[in-house]
Amino acid sequence: MDTMSRRQFMQVSSAGSAALGAGLLAQAAPADQPAPAAPGGEAFVDRIAFGPWMNDTRMEPMPFSGWPPDAFDDVTVESIIKTFELNQAFGYNIYDIFGLFATYGWPEDLESAATPERSARVRSLVKAAHDRNIKIICGMGVYSWGFDEIIKKHPEVAGVNQQYPNQQVMCGSKEESWKWQEKLVDFMMKWELDGFHLEAADLGRCTCPDCMAKWPRNPDYFCEISSRTAKYIREKMPDAYILVTTISWADWNTGFAEQDKDSLVELSKSVDCIFDQGHHSCYVRPPARKPFIERLHSRFGTSGGLWVYPTYTWDRLQWFLPYPKQTGTHMKELFEDGGRGVMYYQGPPNNPGVEINIAFGGQLMCNPGKSVEENLAAVLEHIYKPKSAAALEKLVSVVLGAEDAYFNHMEWDDKHLYLKGNKLFPGPGELHLSRPITGLYGTPDYILEPQLSFEGRKAYNIGLEKVLKDAYAIGDQFEAQDKITRLQTALLNTLMMVRTAISTQQWEEQQAKERAKS
């Protein structure tokens, strides 16, 4: 797919959009009825709401938080359940979450992580998901992520003389390591969860001589330990849903070699779906993706092509960044290639842009044959309850205009693979609002270089001004007045943030000129 087709995909004509709005309003269900997202015969199978961490959907800011925050309080639970409600309305069937009992380090005594209070909260979330016909699966590190304390107290699980020393991973060649992985699986099976998300490579691998001799290529190593874990789960819990993600399995620039794909085909015999998420673009890209999917014994998916990772510290109305074109274009092409899974990133559902993104993801997964605009209009009709077709049409243009104002001015190269200011990795597939990831210092990373240049920020400013004026002009044309007011506020806050970045740079340049004169 070339750059122009991505940017110009599904342009809306005024007449076509008006007809779309009229058609949807004519079929509008009463306000107390479910949203229109109901999967038909042609729909994604694995419609996953990916948390990923339990506070990523938190509806209140945590201004002094590290990452990932370990808070598991009433706000955590209420926020996740609010997200469940949005997921149910728009057709998600699985919720995938990390951190239920440990956000980073498992204690040596795994059972001690299940305090009475924490256990009660976990059970309440599982029940809330099941009450809404949503399966809930837990994210789990495989030989890495969370084993630091165990490795310290049980050095027999660590690799010796590693080529690349790594104290955060267990050795894949040692049976002692496998026993700890079994213990973790057994522990997590006690909580009425519906399955597992296996993640083997986020913190790397063991590179001891034994492991390097058996599995010199990273994908072979990760396939082996993931497959063994999946088979054990299937043996103990035959109906479990099992997915594997391939984050950090290969070089982001080169992707999977043919022999790596052979290993993945073998792994696919043990799992329900393999996800090539695409943090820095996917490892398997078109045109190679379709024939690869045809070889698999499992389903295949991505994370929708692009997502914005939420920040914990910002006010929930500080940003507005919808991306239905970005994800809609990718998901429709994925479906055409035979992909049937999407792990759609979540966020605080009381942020208007996040709410639209989550709803749109579920809506399109249920209706991949419909256009981006049709799916978006269905979402906006349900959430904002427009009083007329014209109001719906205008709101669609506001959302798409806010998206274009940002993404059409990112500093991409000609092939739309690399940002011009960062040729180390393709992407971003995962876009961070702020650095560090928590937003602790308040820096609006996503509107700064290399994402947007100074000229890009000025163009973004102009685009935001237009859509904000349009949003104000139609503010009284919706039944959901609280919703439209929050959207206006988030747009205004975004515009002020961009203006601040522009004026700060202009001021600094002016001060530098004044100093040069003196």
Report on this model:
The chain is of the alpha/beta class and 518 residues long. It has 16 helices and 10 strands. The strands form 2 sheets. Strands 1-2-3-4-5-6-7-9 form an 8-stranded parallel β-barrel. Helix 4 (116-131) links the parallel strand 2 (94-98) and strand 3.
Low-confidence residue ranges: 1-24, 26-34
Describe the strand arrangement of the main beta sheet, using strand numbers.
1-2-3-4-5-6-7-9
Helix content: 40-55%
Q: Tell me the quaternary state.
A: single chain
N-to-C terminal Cα separation, in Å?
Answer: 53 Å
- Could you say which overall geometry the principal axes of the C-alpha atoms support? globular
Order of helices and strands: HHEHEHEHHEHHEHEHEEHEHHHEHH
Helix/strand/pairing class, anyone?
Answer: alpha/beta
Outline the secondary-structure elements.
Layout: H1 3-8, H2 14-26, E1 46-53, H3 74-89, E2 94-98, H4 116-131, E3 135-141, H5 148-153, H6 175-188, E4 195-199, H7 209-214, H8 218-236, E5 241-245, H9 258-267, E6 273-275, H10 289-295, E7 299-302, E8 307-309, H11 324-336, E9 341-345, H12 352-366, H13 372-384, H14 389-407, E10 430-432, H15 454-473, H16 481-517
Parallel strand pairs: 1-2, 1-9, 2-3, 3-4, 4-5, 5-6, 6-7, 7-9, 8-10
Helix pairs in contact: 2-13, 2-14, 3-4, 8-9, 11-12, 12-13, 13-14, 14-15, 15-16
Question: What would the keywords be for this entry?
Answer:
518 residues, globular, 8-stranded parallel barrel, two-stranded parallel ribbon, 10 strands, alpha/beta
